[in-house]
Amino acid sequence: MFITSVELREIRLPLVHFFETSFGRTTERRIVLVRVKDKDGAEGWGECTAGEGPFYCEEWTETAWTTLNSFLAPMVVGRELQNAAESATLMRPVRGHRMAKAAIETACWDLEAKCAGLPLWKHLGGNRPEIPCGVSIGIQDTPAALMQKIEKELAAGYQRIKIKIKPGWDVDIVEAVRQRFPAIALMADANSAYTLADVSLFQELDRYNLMMIEQPLAHDDIFDHGELQKQIQTPICLDESIHSDEDAKHAIALGACRVINVKLGRVGGHAEAKRVERICRENNIPVWCGGMLEAGIGRAHNIAMATLAGFSLPGDVSASARYWEEDIIEPPVTVTSWGTIVAPEKPGLGFEIHLPRLEALTVRKEVIDQGLGLRCAPAGH
Ligand code: OSB
Ligand code: MG
Fold this sequence. Notes:
Number of strands: 15
CATH topology of the largest domain: TIM Barrel
CATH class of the largest domain: Alpha Beta
Bound molecules: 2-succinylbenzoate, magnesium ion
Structural class: alpha/beta
């Protein structure tokens, strides 16, 4: 594949309902989309999962835009790629910025799958044509509002419920949810809101038969999670802390988790996600596909990734309608009444991009069609 251009665009997309975590509330997404084109005119699409501020991790919409525009896009434009994964190799001189990198890398995979005439999930090596789905329900204004949401999602068929917790919205809430729904598959995500000083709180949570507790401690910690796991029964699932297969190896070796949530943006794309999945599968650590409030393109990439064998637990990938009045893909992502998403059979992502809608939502657009040259280049380029 010879990459002739990378198109960046930012769209604004209001959520149908605000989403609140321990680090803040989101009402409208600012999403950077990437379109890569090859010399035969074929194209692939990727979505950057960076949030609107540097709160989940260091990246956010503006850093992603400027890093893609100034460094990452010029590193792949004008280059012949042996395969999609090589795009990640070309971008390696840039440290971090994994969500920005993943936007290009995943677009290259879509392009490559299309050129091969295969649905992306098969091209990635997936063997699970129907993926199990759960939902992530944010912090609500009242416990009653949370109960209502859970009720609704269970009625829709979702296989597990994840609730967000933070200091002041934790043990009492979990207790209330358990009382109302004694037998559901339930888990809690703290998004790094606690420290090891809170061990007793997690020991209390052991009473509620949670499937797992996600990222209780610092976003950049692995060691303390190992200390916490020794003192509680509930399996720990790492999210924020895992950026690579190396991180996964270290976390497993330290007993810091018994489950891992894989996010394409957080690990830098499909190639690294496949390596994380593999390490976990070899060590009997189940993984599941996390979500970052993606629009349709990111959602379609998540669906493809979640068909890999190691993704044995229901993930956070759910129907488009839970997030958007109207998604940017056709058809929108839908969920069966038994709580699964059926992987599409069309080549590449397997969904059409709704271009007129995309144009209407676009607030800025940039096309990079010349490789490194005028711009600041790292050594060796
Ligand atoms: O920690 O999994 C998380 C959303 C934004 C940032 C972090 C997280 C989340 C979610 C939502 O839990 C998952 C989704 O519905 O896309
Ligand atoms: Mg999480």
